[in-house]
Amino acid sequence: MDKERIAALIKAKRKEKGLTQAELAEEIHVTEKAVSRWETGRGTPDISLLLPLSEALGIQVEELLNGEESPVQEIITYEEEKRKELTGKTMRKALLSFVLSLLIFLIYLRYEYDPSVELNYLLRLALTVIASVFVLYGNHILEEEWLEKEEDRALLKKISLSLVFAYYAVLMFNMTLFARYHHGTGLNLIPFRTILTILTSGNKYSIFINILGNFIIYMPLSFFLMELFHVKDFKRHTLVSLLIIVITEVLQYVTRSGVADIDDVILCTLGMIIFRLLYLKRRAA
Predict the structure, then answer these.
(1) The CA-based dihedral angle spanning residues 263, 269, 271, 272, taken in that order and rounded to the nearest 10 degrees
(2) Do 284 and 261 have their domain in common?
(3) What is the model's pTM?
(4) Which of 79, 108, 115, 178 could crosslink 174 through cysteines, CB 3.0-4.6 Å?
């Protein structure tokens, strides 16, 4: 299989058809970067794309493969070489990234459930964020250097987000309901009483953890509701957000693992709503 001849043919036929790389990519449901890789010889189309690509370029599959062997034998050879290409350096880098992610999260769990160790909020959060970053990096590697079809990229994104969501859900369970991290129990139904008390105390750590922390900590949940669970309607998103936060506060009170505070509900819900508005505005830009 001559990658350079295939690359030159794809590029020539695309231009002959008057198509840009983006237009060709859209027609056969792949990314523009995939077409760019084909035309520079840095990659070859997946075997499942040979027919739609040939049709889009107005040529036969055997012309696209451009070999002297019979079309059937050439397709078999093409598939074998493509498989070797996909299981090379790209797969090793992605696999390493996913393995590191799991190891880091296991380290977090090891210390999280060790009664003799008390991790502070920032360290627990940092370990979970680093583990999530490795998942997203592995996803990025596969998207950029391996996957070409949009449906495959969408499936990989869903799997990666599901894993990161699992990390986040475990972290939130530990931070909100795991008893040894809470130093008081009770109930506050008076709006802004806790917020004003913390602000007037002048304790910067309390302000950061209890006010800014509550405002930010549920923002990732807002992202997951939109991207993983497709809850994007404003009313529905707000209702689901509020319901999750209220249930968490009630569970804290019932299990005596923390204070059920109306101010926490206000801050967390407000943070999720603002994140949703900013995120959708950025995507629309």
Answers:
(1) 160
(2) yes
(3) 0.77
(4) 178
